[in-house]
Each structure stands twice: as C-alpha cells, then as structure tokens.
Design goal:
With about 625 residues, this protein is of the alpha/beta class. The chain has 3 domains: about 1-85 and about 140-205 and about 295-350, FAD/NAD(P)-binding domain (3-Layer(bba) Sandwich); about 95-135 and about 210-290, D-Amino Acid Oxidase, Chain A, domain 2; about 375-615, Aldolase class I (TIM Barrel, Alpha-Beta Barrel). The strands form 7 sheets. Strands 5-6-4-14-15-16-13-17 form an 8-stranded mixed β-sheet. A 6-stranded mixed β-sheet has the order 8-2-1-12-19-18, covered by helices on one side. A hairpin with a 4-residue loop joins strand 15 and strand 16. Helix 16 (about 515-525) packs parallel to helix 17 (about 545-555) and helix 18 runs parallel beside helix 20 (about 595-615). The longest helix has 25 residues, at about 60-80. The termini are far apart. The structure holds glycine.
Amino acid sequence: MKASNEVIVVGGGIIGLAIAIELRLKGIGVTVLSRNYEEAATNAAAGMLAPRAEGLTGVMLELALASLYLYPEWIRKLEHVGGESAEYNPCGIIAPVKKAPQKPQEGNHSIWLDRNALECYQPGLSKEIVGAWWYPEEGQVAPRRLGKVLHQVAQRVGVDIKSGVEAIAFSREVGKIRGVLTKSGIFTADTYIVANGVWAGKLLPLPVTPVKGEMLSLKMPPSQPLNRVIFGENTYLVPKQDGTLIIGATSVNTWQEGNSAQGINELLQRAIQLYPPLAQWELLETWYGYRPNTPDGMPILGYGDAANLILATGHHRNGILLAPITAQLIAELVATGQQPEILKHFSYKRFHSPIVYATPVANTSHCQREEEEEDYLVIAGRKFRSRLLTGTGKYKSIEVMQKSVEASGCEIVTVAVRRVQAREKGHEGLAEALDWSKIWMLPNTAGCRTAEEAVRVARLGREMAKLLGQEDNNFVKLEVISDPKYLLPDPLGTLQAAEQLVKEGFAVLPYVNADPLLCKRLEEVGCVTVMPLGSPIGSGQGIRNLDNIRIIIEQASVPVIIDAGIGTPSDAALGMEMGADALLLNTAIACADNPVQMARAFRLATEAGRLAYKAGRIPVKSYAQPSSPTTGLVK
Ligand code: GLY
C-alpha cells in the first residue's frame, strides 16, 4: 500500500485538515477527500474562541478549554510551516448584559464589569446595557485565513488533498470499511476518518443536522472603534485586523440555501441595538453556512461502527475552537489504537445505543410484548418504553410518592429544581427516594418568572442530575410562568430561554400553551419535544384545547407531550388516542384518594390509548350501522 493511502479523511474543512496535518506529522500517509471547501462551515465561521462566552458546561467545557489552551502553540506551528498569519488574536471577549446579576460570581476566567468599567473597555454600547462579563482568556482567529494556512501546511507536509471529490458511501466487509465510493471512483486505505461536518449525516446514519447561520460584514471606520469580540445575547460582533466587522449569526434548523431578507434584517437590527454607531458603516458582504449539530450539541468523536472507521464531526457552534484538540485526540487514536479517556463522552453510541429505562409490561402475551417493545418514545435520541411522565409534588408522604411512581410504570420523573434547592416540603430526601439508575430525571424550571431565571435554574438542574449519577443528562423541562393566577406559560420568555438553552447544549422540553405556531417555532430553534397544556396546571379540567393540540400533533416532527390539566384516565386515553406521543401529569395522581391505584389506572389508560391510536379507530358516522352482516338473512 502507498504511504499516502494509510488514512483517508473525508472532509477538507478545518477539522479534516487539522487531523490530516497531525497524522502526517506522525509519519502517517493521508489523503483528504474534499467535496467543496467553499461550502465548509470553516469558511462561514466568525472565528470566536469562546468556551465560556458560549455558555459551555461539563465535559464540553473541559474539551473546549483544552482546545483553547492549545491554540497559541498550534497556530505558531502552523504559521511557521505555512508562512502566513491566521490572525490569532487573544483579544478577550466582552459579553454585555441588560440586567445586572444579583451577585456576580467572578473567577479567574470571568470578570464582572459594571457600566463605568465597561465604558473603559468598550465605549459606545447601547444605553440598555448595564454591564458585561469580561472573558480575558478567550479571543478569535480569522477562519478564512486559517483555512488558507491549513491548506498550505497540509500540502507542505505531504497531505494529498483531492478537491471536488464527494464521498457517497462506504463499502463494508465483515465489520470493516473496504473503500469509500465517490463519483471519481473508489478510494481505499487502512483507516477512514469522517470529518465532513454536517454532510456526515448524509454519509452515515448519524444524528448530525444542519443549523444554518447567516452572517454579514461591515467596514469599520479607520479609527477601529471595536477591537474586542462583543458577544451579545443573540448577536456577536467580531472585529478583524483588516478593518472588517463580522456580525453573526442566525440559527435555524434548515438546509435552505441563500441569505434571507429576514435573516439579514434580524442580524442588523440586533447588532445596531447592541452597538448603535455601526448603523452608519458600509455593508460589505453577506453569507451563510451550516453548523453540524447533534441532539446534545456536542461533537461525535472516536470509533464509528466499523473497526477502521473514526468519526470527528458534529462540532456545531464550536468547530474552529475545537480543531486543535480534535486533531490531537484523533491522531492519538489512529497512531496508538488507544482511545483517549475524554473521548468516551463523545461516542456516537450515546445516540445509537440508548439505555432503555423500562419495566416489562405485565400480563401480556409474548407476541403482544414484542409488538409493544418496538414502540419506544424517543426523546433526543434516548428511548423510553413508558409514555407516561409524572412528578413528585403534592404527595401526602414520600412512601406514597414512591409507590405511585412505581405503579405508574413511568421512566421519566420531573423534579422542580427550585423546590429541591429550597428543601420545600415533599422535596427533601428526593435523592434517596427514587432509584435514579432506573428513573430518568427531568429537572424542571417551575417557579421561574423570566427567561433569565429559567436559564439559570436549568443549569442548576443539570448539576443536580449529575450529582445523582446521570452524567449525560442534559434534559430540562422549561417552564417560564410569569402569571401567578392562571399559571399560564409566557410564550416569549419560553422561546427566548429555549434558544439560549439549546445553544448551551440542553435537550429542551418546553411547557407551552397549545399554540401550533409557537410549537413550530420552538421546534425550529431545536427543542426536542413540545409540551402543550391540556388545561391549566392542577385544574383537572382535562384536554380543553383538543383542536389546537390536534394541529400541533399533525405538524410536529418532535414528540408532543400533553402536559397539565389531565384529570382522569379517560383524559389520558383520549390524548393518546389522538396521537400524542406521551403525557405528563402529577396532581391527578398525587391528589387522588388512592394515589397508588390511580397511578396504575393512568398507566393502563396511557397504554390503552397508545394501542388504540396505533390500531386505528373507526370513522365516526352520522347514522347507525348494524353490527352483523345484512346479507344472507333468512327471509
Ligand atoms: N460560533 C458561533 C456560531 O456558531 O454562531
């Protein structure tokens, strides 16, 4: 085998090229198959290096920080070989806010600037801005220049880049990849690395989907009034050394091509609101790209489903930032065959082999069981057999709650983060009360009146789930309820918080009024379910919004969970018969005379409703029709 054929990297964007160079430097032969560099997310990115400003947490933050700290040396090495600058600039990032935090939690990595201090760092921001977080360790690079440097270095170190070659499929034999089929023929190697961003979802059955980002640039006046990255709530401003200002970016789950008037309008409005002087600057360029997203917003790294297949995709908003660490880890994996410890968190298996939190359905025949076992509720790639979700509030005692949860057969229990934190009655001892190795926790933001509060509480919820051993639990039931009388969810606050939480890698399950347009919008911003209410929380009025919920079910491509208002098992059965994917209820069980019996009744009704939906009901007719045949009657 020719040396240059030892590894084939599919993808010639920043991730593919960075890996190829690292492999080459280890003496491994590499061919890169690059479909169309012009369309790579690399070419569209603004180039922020912003782990904390992006709100990353947990293992994702760990990975991102490791990459951030590799950046200076990585760039030095590339520029040395490539002979050009990639404009790496550790300029720090300013994240302005409109509402001051009550008690700023400063650390080494973030410093609170009040309005006066902010004025010294960056004058001219909108009057609405009360202060900002300053992230001194973060910065930026110029992705287009970096792309050029990577191409130069790759060529100099002997990477064989085949441009315009699109991978169509892998041919496989006994658990190994034998070759990659392209329109230019079959390419073969020992090892294959898939690093083609969002197109990985077309090549392999991976949950990598596009999040389109529209961008634009303006020409700054010669005085360069901006020289640090400004990371606003929905918009960022990234000043480049050549005097252009990049403004980004929209976020829409779509493959739709082109820049839309609405996208550019939104960007400009938000940018002008953030920094009014730019309204007068010359518009230079508009463009767009597709971020490769995954259900949890984290990349897919490590072995794929063949012995010689390695995956490095799904970097979503952080491809530029994560390039050095991705290259280092993947090259180490190829060279040693040993998977670096951190990669265990990024395996594709977290989507393909989910744990089934299930209890077998009792008293059913083998045949029926097989049929029902196929019928999972799938949320953010995680499978559940039960379609009934319950809560822990309002029970007379912990024991009754435990028995009721068991009788309900539910596998997802929602927990009010605030009430647990405040140790409210009935919420003490929750950690020990339920077996969290069998029950999936759904932290909820009950009690939050604004989007900001909900985002904060969601973050606490994620920590709470981790403490209970659910390391990879990124679920949050989002409730933003500003109205204390009817407890109706705030649609705008919910949408705003959902956008932020999706950005932070949460699997968001929003509780909303039964509004089909809002549900669609929430789905578009990346929520993993929609949870329309049947009627006001705890009212037991049943499903009052049948018509709207029907439309929501018809339109949704994420699970629809009817939440709140369900009073009786017949309400539950009705919801499921209509085609809802699941139900969430608490009061109807917790406050029944006999909660344990009622929990079992709801379990049966939910299962019956689901079976009936799948079985297909008879049409409703205006007139009677005899049950027995009318032909062949004795005359
Ligand atoms: N990294 C910023 C973005 O994807 O918009």
